[in-house]
Amino acid sequence: MEQPDSPSAASRLTVRQRLAQSLDDGPLAYLIQALILLYMVSLTLETVPSLAAYADLFEAIDITVTAIFITELVVRCVVVERPLRYLLSFYGLVDVLSILPPLIGINSKGLRLLRLLRVAKLMKNKKLSGAVRRLKLAVIEIADDLLVFTFISCLFTYFSAYLLYTFEQEAQPEVFGSIPDALWWSVVTLTTVGYGDGYPITGGGKFCAALLMLIGIGIIAIPTGLITTALASIEEQQRQERKG
Asked: What class has domain 138-243?
């Protein structure tokens, strides 16, 4: 009977470790990321009516990528120490759900949306995941400030929508016929999107709209500034830790 400390057992363990490392941050990881990008391009072009003649090609890409993802999931479950724990993790669930539609043989539009979960696997990229972790730490650091700012912004948006409804409801019932309609217009204006599907025509409505437009600049700038400052602080902390 082979002992756990035998050379062959150690060799198998080394192979598993190398495979696991390659899947996380190595050639296999980059291959999977390239396949995800290929799948995204294929999924996009598949919706172009003039490219309907290439439907078989797009389907072949989908089947091939799905088969590779299934293989990757099986290999990963073999090389990790606790397969069940991985399957219940975020990326494990992403792996399972993204291959679920073809496995169960259902191609409904709702289930096909699960295929987009494959894009989340790009977050496994080492550099990208590091940036995401820094962003997460930055958001946590300023969570209270963001919460207060969001609360005030929501109150102001609702208050503006109510005023717009009051001023514009009789003049433009088709655009500002209810508070939800006015709230939609307020959000679109406050975020500086401006679809142009309606605009105030009364004096009071124009005044409210002007305030919304001016404050909308701050709505975008303030959280951006808070996050940027927090990111700079975290990067400086990490730089000092590496030096220390």
From this structure: mainly alpha
